[in-house]
From TrEMBL:
Top-rank taxon: Bacteria
Listed InterPro entries: Diverse_substr_monoxygenases, Luciferase-like_dom, Luciferase-like_sf
Keywords for this protein: Flavoprotein, FMN, Monooxygenase, Oxidoreductase
Keyword Flavoprotein: yes
Molecular function GO labels: monooxygenase activity; oxidoreductase activity, acting on paired donors, with incorporation or reduction of molecular oxygen
Luciferase-like domain boundaries: 28-176
Originating species: Agrobacterium vitis
Protein's UniProt name: LLM class flavin-dependent oxidoreductase
Length: 198
């Protein structure tokens, strides 16, 4: 008999009021407006873990939807992924109240500097004991580029070429900065790390 297949169950959410169920926020029992509360997210993480979910994927977007009628008005009125907070900042809080739940976050390579992002994701890797994943995107909204002081979004193929370079740099930072055995943690000799291996 072939081995039984196991389903991997992930929840999908966003650190905002109106993720993909636009307008649901207006329902009397909806609590999505609590997205600004860490307790909202830690309660969700506990619930997902009790329900035997494998992970929580958090989408993100930089910029606003301003294409319809050349305006952001509908996006604001209906809370279409706006306002939206940074999903990365939720993860350590949710990881602290769970033991097995994994976390995937969307981070845009066009807006995060490689070194600082490598540092942030490494910190989350440590704080979650390896329960972090990254959805790599390059963005597509002109409004995001303009919010960052650019005149518009970089052309698609150029963004992906830049993302390849970004990934190469991240791998060098993650895999080439500290050799295996660099951390000695030798209290007697007062050597935390071997400089020759960093």
């Amino acid at each position: 008999m072939p081995p039984r297949k196991q389903i991997i169950l992930n929840a999908f959410n966003m650190n905002c009021v109106g993720h993909i169920n636009h307008g649901l926020w207006a329902h009397p029992r909806d609590r999505s407006h609590d997205y600004k509360s860490l307790r909202h997210w830690t309660d969700l993480a506990r619930t997902l873990e009790r329900g035997l979910f494998d992970g929580l994927f958090l989408a993100d977007i930089v910029g606003v939807y301003d294409i319809y009628q050349n305006s952001v008005d509908l996006t604001l009125r209906e809370s279409i992924q706006l306002p939206v907070n940074d999903p990365m900042l939720l993860v350590s809080g949710m990881a602290a109240v769970t033991d097995n739940l994994g976390f995937g976050i969307t981070v845009n390579t066009s807006v995060e500097a490689p070194y600082t992002f490598a540092r942030k994701i490494s910190t989350l890797d440590h704080l979650t004991s390896g329960r972090i994943g990254w959805n790599i995107v390059t963005g597509y909204l002109d409004s995001a580029a303009k919010a960052l002081g650019e005149t518009g979004m970089t052309e698609h193929d150029t963004r992906y070429d830049q993302a390849d370079d970004y990934m190469d740099l991240l791998y060098k930072l993650w895999e080439g900065s500290w050799e295996e055995g660099a951390v000695r943690l030798d209290k007697q000799a007062r050597i935390y790390a071997d400089p020759a291996k960093v």
